Amino acid sequence: MHALPSLAAHRRPARRETVVLLHASASSSRQWDPLAEALAPHFDVQAIDLHGHGRGPAWTAGRPLSVHDDAALARAVLERSGGGHVIGHSYGAAVATHLAAASPALVHSLAVYEPVLFSLLEAQAPMSPGIREAFALAAFVREQVERAAPAAAAERFVDYWSGAGAWRAMSASRQQAVAERMPVVAQHFATLVGEPLPLHALQKLRMPLLCLRGSRTTMAALHVTALLRCLLPHGRHEVLDGLAHMGPLTHPRTVNERLLRFLHFDVPCRAPHEAPAAAERSGAATETADCAT
Q1: N or C, which end of the chain is more exposed by having fewer CB within 10 Å?
Q2: pLDDT of 118-128, one tens digit each?
């Protein structure tokens, strides 16, 4: 495996800023290991295992898990460090966006890869094919979990996000690990649909923002990222050619190199809570959108 490029020539000031990494549903903090290794010489890296994933705490509160409960794990880290940069993928990107909207002073920059903000999509585009696909997948996962058939739920879940046949290509041990997380994944769907993302809070975000998607993604992710282009026009919205929804796992070098450039070039060096400067342009493809609809 090729190492990510060295950033020693572009070191930040002596104070080490914090970077929080949030993983996708049915994954774990380990998905960010190559990025964490590249960031470690320059940042205090905190890759978090969300509830019911990896070494994360099981959810035992006696009520449904909320996206805000997972966001609280990251918020606690940011409060201890005086704020920091937040990176997320899929469900982790949705958690990161909710966190930024609720506590913008703690989030110095936000980078997301295909956040599954289904409540936003339902509110803004309730008849879109993307939300219908998301609802169908959520209903199937919930039904299979209730029938004690987590493997069936996992196969449909994995093949939707990773492509047909992806489940069968996985090792038996990996299939078992993903299947065991389906009850928590079903709760993720419920909170992603049921927990509103206040539009006024989202549109007030002014920290440096990078929103990435793959060119081969699902309809649901495509529609969410199109909405974010319209709602957050100050951010950078880019397409990574040839990647699908699971790009951070299938093409980590491509995704991580863009994230590294974002943190070292696009994000201004500033003290916490200082107003951000305009982000520098990079060579990545930037999307445009018709926001009239």
Answers
A1: N
A2: 999 999 998 88
CATH of range 8-123+196-266; options 3.20.20.70, 3.30.200.20, 3.90.420.10, 3.40.50.1820: 3.40.50.1820
- Identity (one letter) of the amino acid at 91? Y
Question: Can you state the percent helix, strand and coil of the chain, rounding each to 5?
Answer: 50, 10, 40
Q: Is 196 left (phi over 0), alpha (psi -120 to 50) or beta?
A: beta
For residues 120 and 197, the answer to whether their CB atoms sit within 8 Å is yes
d(CA 282, CA 248) in angstroms, rounded, equals 20
Q: Which amino acid is it at 132?
A: R
Q: Is 165 exposed, middle or buried (0-12, 13-18, 19+ CB in 10 A)?
A: exposed
Kindly tell me if the per-residue pLDDT of 280 is higher than 70: no
Residue 211: alpha-carbon gap to chain centroid = 9
Which range is least confidently modeled, 31-35, 59-63, 183-187?
Answer: 59-63
Query: Taking the domains of the chain in order of start, what are their residue ranges?
Result: 8-123+196-266
Packing angle, helices 182-194 and 172-180, rounded to 10? 50
